[in-house]
Design brief:
Length: 176
Amino acid sequence: LKADEKLTNKLRAKYSMGKPLVGISWQGGGNSARIPLKSIELQQLLKILQKKDVTFVSLQYGNMESEIKKFCKKHNVEIINDKSINPLADMDTWLSQVDAMDFVISVANTTIHGAGGLGKPTFCMVSNRSDWRWIDSDIHDDCYWYKSVNAGFQGLKEPWDKTVDKANEWLHDMLK
């Protein structure tokens, strides 16, 4: 994949606060039965979002403005939610937004494919009920499709906490 370099640079300048940019996404798409199987609540990312040495940017598609605003106010964290970008209506602009990030953390959704296709350092939190795209972790314990994507697989009977911890450790290591 190749993003519009001028737009990528413009977005990077718009979001930059002198800290690394980390894009986040927490809900998957697809049919209504699959969405809850591969999504997490924004609340579950709190320990990551409390980091003060990075700037977080929502790459989440769909109208999440109200959820993000309430969450940020409640937990005194900041997530940039650029309302001028609608991935469902203009994927090219969204791809430039993804390209503006230094790192990406997401559940297995389109964000992973955009970031992976661009070669962005990415951490994918893979559900224990993932689909065929995520080869069984007993066979291949990372992302088969993109070299820049690290995968953390939710254990069969585990809550998301351990996978989020893996994402947090990955980001910590990436920031060193």
